[in-house]
Design brief:
By secondary structure, this protein is mainly α. It is built from nine helices and no strands.
């Protein structure tokens, strides 16, 4: 049975990983161009949006209510940080600062929910170990992303979390 929501989510994980690598490279080379940074965070938001479809798939394919709740919360939480970062470069920068700080915390909470949802459905995926590992690493990623100071570390830890999450989704396609 083809599970198209999992394929969409895997593409989202790839896009989020590209944006995370972009962010890490931006920090490493201290290159801060406002337009490119704004584009990076919107690409990251789109990747997370597509990645959240995995949890809608958990509801559709496995009947997980936690998956549906995680999907709905993700739809709301994703947009705070890129919107705040965009407003940072406008006369409404004070609103941007507030949205950016709140957005980082919300993305961290969302990552923790992603991890918990993966742990909840691990028995139904047929790939218990990989899904459990992805869930644990997503929880660790969320913990780092909840604090603005460790956002860079969160993006680094997001890479193996997204790889394991993608692997668990592709292995669940059987």
């Amino acid at each position: 049975m083809t599970k198209p929501l999992f394929i969409v989510a895997a593409v989202g994980y790839i896009i989020a990983m590209i944006a995370a690598i972009w962010y890490i490279a931006d920090w490493a080379f201290l290159y801060t161009d406002a337009i490119l940074d704004i584009a990076m965070w919107w690409v990251f938001a789109v990747g997370l949006l597509l990645g959240s479809f995995a949890f809608l798939g958990y509801r559709s394919y496995y009947g997980s209510s936690m998956g549906l709740a995680t999907f709905i919360i993700s739809l709301v939480f994703i947009w705070f940080y890129p919107l705040g970062y965009t407003l940072w470069y406008t006369p409404l920068y004070f609103i941007g600062i507030f949205l950016e700080i709140i957005g980082v915390v919300l993305i961290g909470v969302m990552m923790i929910l992603w991890g918990v949802s993966k742990i909840v459905v691990r028995n139904k995926t047929g790939q218990m170990g990989v899904t459990l590992a992805a869930g644990i690493i997503f929880i660790i990623t969320g913990g780092f992303m909840c604090t603005y100071l460790f956002l860079l570390v969160g993006c680094i830890v997001l890479l193996p979390a997204a790889i394991l999450g993608m692997t668990s989704l592709f292995l669940s396609l059987k």
